[in-house]
Amino acid sequence: MSQRVYITGLGMISALGNTVSEGFLSLSQSKTGIGKINHLTTRYKEEFLAGEINLSNKDLADLVKDSNPEYNRNTYLAMIAAKEAVIHSGIDTKDGLRTGLISSTTVAGMGITELYYKELFEKTDHLSVIDTHDCGYSTERIADYIGNVDYVTTISTACSSAANAIMLGCRMIKHGQLDRVVVGGVDALSKFTFNGFNTLMILDREWCKPFDENRKGLNLGEGAAFLVIEGEEALNKRQGKPLTEIIGYANANDAYHQTASSPEGYGATLAIQQALAMSGLNPSQVDYINMHGTGTPNNDLSEGMATVAVFGNQIPKFSSTKAYTGHTLAAAASIEAVISVLSLQHQTIFPNLNFTTPIASLNLTPIHELLKTPINIVLSNSFGFGGNCSSLLFKKV
Amino acid sequence: MDALIEKLKKQIIEQLNLAEVNPDEVSADSPLFGEGLGLDSIDALELIVLLEKHYGIKIEDPKDGKVIFQSLRTMAEYIKAQGKG
Amino acid sequence: MYIITSYAHIKHHQVAVNGELIFKTEPTHSLSEFLSEAYKSMGIIYPKFHKMDAQCKLGLLCTEFALQNSSFLTNSSLTKTAIVLSNSASSLETDRQYQASIADKSNYFPSPTVFVYTLPNIVIGEIAIKHKLTGENAFFVTEKMDAQLLVNYADILLGQYAEAAIIGWIEVDGDSYEAFIFLVENGEYLNKNVIFKPLNQSTVNQLYNQTLWTH
After folding, report:
1. Measured between CB atoms, does B62 come within 8 Å of chain A?
2. What ipTM, to 2 d.p.?
3. Is C112 on the interface with B (CB under 8 A)?
4. Contact residues, chain A, for C99 at CB < 8 Å
């Protein structure tokens, strides 16, 4: 029953670029995508930086050739990244094998709904935007855009959403319910998100500084990333080429607070330990950790504590790539899964930007300059509000 | 000062939905966090909003809350020191 | 063999547990009045309850009702109890509330507490916090209560990743609301008096569609 599951296609649009190759270029030049806000209309435009994709909603509509454009940014981003992943993998969704689509989002159509929200009470010119508001809507549109998808579902578990989409995809393949699945997540910037994170006072007004003693908070970002994952049987049938194997995954609840992580990182520790247990690896076999590392005082300390709890005094090389993309919420785990695959393919650790001083109580120093090094196993963490903690393990093929 | 403390107590109980708290059991010096009223980090942010909304005081760094929000008395003293309330 | 050992259903101002109506209020009550009365009827003390948004209150209460008189929590391991919930509106009701608080420029005091609840999976967090459950979670957004999806997912989880699960549907959208929670445990470990309800699509649909409402 338990066949191996491989990643065979990547698609990503983020502040680093509109494709995986553009993203890779920015990463390998240690160039952040976070900067001034150009496209989003918000009272915070001048006040905060963000990892915004430098395309207007109209540009995005043109890219996906939307014949009756509704300008739902979230959906367009997802369509672009999912299509890139499908093309990259070389799968043919009409070949009779069962293809699934598991997407995830938290913001959904909020970015477009908020523009017309007041007006909708008075006139109905833009009533159709309401139909695009639901979390499930973008998933349905992506499915149509890819074509011939047999199974569609949507997950929403805050900032670990895409990790849970990847996990579910792997399991459905292992349980023989699907042959391959397009998995990932998307979240576009919205005023709603900006106001909310500002209300929680966890936004840094400057570039975020993950794992730095003087970190002040996160930068928000937007993006979508999708991966095609395939069971080895389906892959062999079409003689496709694997990029990376997914060898472990786990999800646990921190059961501590609605938004704050427990000081000792209990849920995170459980997720990492259970993912390792599934893979059969010892902690010492992990070569690199792509951290959740949002740059908030709470997350980085808690995640650091969990890392020490699992790895003791043999902490693997680690970095957070949030300072490149911003925190892309439901897309974060799939964007970081793509970055993990790039790390394995190019045997390169993309450095933790803006780091100068280790957190005093932890004394952990992330990789902060581009490093070429042998990497066989990558651990990627993603934690979300609601106590939702997920860890994924990737292996070089 | 006592009047301000009483007013703050009512405002906090209302703003933080402390429905099962008996106002008579909360003294001016009871700790607001931890053992006392059992408030958490989100409640601290809610208190920052309360200070801005009712007293026109803006707190930029949530860390400052640790000192200001020790008890009703420390909050009241802070409001007075800002020339408000 | 995994079986459903208890279930609760809340709608139309009524609470039904294991197929029997056990609590109701006047239909004229608002949702928040109804939730507050239902909370009082349980005789529990949990001050955090009053801070939650309607969806979390509803989800937590429905779970509490299903757990009441059940040995689920004593049978199950905290780290191996999964929570899998779903709905169609995500966190729409609280999203609206937060949206209204940021839309008015002259009275701009958005509440952090409200924002915290603008995610659908926070209700899972609240249930996990109440009972210290650190097992796996998932929140699905589907058009209707999708028994096939929930049972399918439970089949994948149970045995391998979890030993027991709290599963269901929690929806609040304007005046309309509904919660349906069922508890799943390994039947092999339970005593024979438990009424046998196998975990499958038709059983879940049958429990969900029982007509018990009085108005």
Report:
1. yes
2. 0.92
3. yes
4. 114, 117, 192
Tell me the mean pLDDT in the region A193-221. Answer: 97
Q: Identify the pLDDT of residue C194.
A: 63
Q: Does A5-237 carry CATH code 3.40.47.10?
A: yes
Establish if C132 touches chain B: CB-CB under 8 angstroms.
no
Domain ranges for chain A: 5-237, 248-396
What does the block give as tokens for C81?
């109890």
A373 compared with B25, residue with greater pLDDT: A373
d(CA A103, CA A136): 9
The rounded distance, in Å, linking the Cα atoms of C134 and A252 is: 5
User: Does B26 map to a domain?
Assistant: no
| Amino acid A133: pLDDT | 77
Parallel/antiparallel/unpaired status of strands C164-173 and C176-186: antiparallel
Q: Six-digit token pair at A169?
A: 């995809």
Asked if A174 and A3 touch (Cβ cutoff 8 Å), the reply is yes
Distance to chain A for C56, nearest Cα, Å: 11
Q: What is the DSSP letter of A227?
A: E
Window 140-199 of A, Cβ < 8 Å to B: 199
8 Å CB contact between C210 and C21: no
The tokens of A362 are what?
């932890």
Q: Is C1 on the interface with B (CB under 8 A)?
A: no
Do the Cβ atoms of B62 and A259 come within 8 Å? Answer: no
**Helices A161-174, C147-157: inter-axial angle, 10-degree rounding:** 80
Structure tokens that stand for A55 in this block: 């395309």
Name the residue of chain C whose CA is nearest to A266's CA: C134
Q: What is the pLDDT of residue B46?
A: 96
Pairwise CA distance, residues A300 & A279, whole Å: 25
Cβ atoms within 10 A of the Cβ of A74, count? Answer: 30
Q: Is some CB atom of chain C closer than 8 A to the CB atom of A108?
A: yes
Phi, psi (degrees; rounded to nearest 5) at A113: -60, -40
Secondary structure of chain C as H, E, C letters: CEEEEEEEEEECCEEEECCEEEEECCCCCCHHHHHHHHHHHHCCCCHHHHHCCHHHHHHHHHHHHHHCCCCHHHHCCHHHEEEEEEECCCCHHHHHHHHHHHHCHHHCCCCHHHHHCCCCCHHHHHHHHHHCCCCCEEEEECCCCCHHHHHHHHHHHECCCECEEEEEEEEEECCEEEEEEEEEEEHHHCCCCCCCCECCHHHHHHHHHCCCCCC
pTM metric for this prediction: 0.95
Residue numbers of A annotated as active site: 159, 292, 327
Local confidence band at A132 (pLDDT 50, 70, 90 cut-offs)? confident
- Output the domain CATH number for residue B57: 1.10.1200
Locate the chain C residue with the closest alpha carbon to B20: C47
Residues of chain B in contact with residue C113, where contact means CB-CB under 8 angstroms, are 16-17, 42-43, 45-46
Please give the Cα distance from C123 to A285 (Å, whole number): 36
CATH numeric code, A248-396: 3.40.47.10
The crossing angle, in degrees rounded to 10, of helices B2-15 and B41-55 is 120
- Residue C162 CA, distance from chain mean position: 18
Element (H, E) at A306: helix A297-311
Which of C39, C45, C57, C111 to probe by mutation at the B interface, max B CB count within 10 Å?
C111
pLDDT band, residue C192 (cuts 50/70/90)? low
For C2-209, the fitting CATH number among 3.20.20.10, 3.40.47.10, 3.40.50.970, 1.10.260.40 is 3.40.47.10
Residue A311 near residue A283 (C-beta atoms within 8 A):
yes
For chain C, give the number of residues. 215
Question: How far is residue A45 CA from its own chain's centroid?
Answer: 24
Judge: B45–A200 Cβ closer than 8 Å, yes or no: yes
Q: Are A105 and A138 in contact (CB under 8 A)?
A: yes
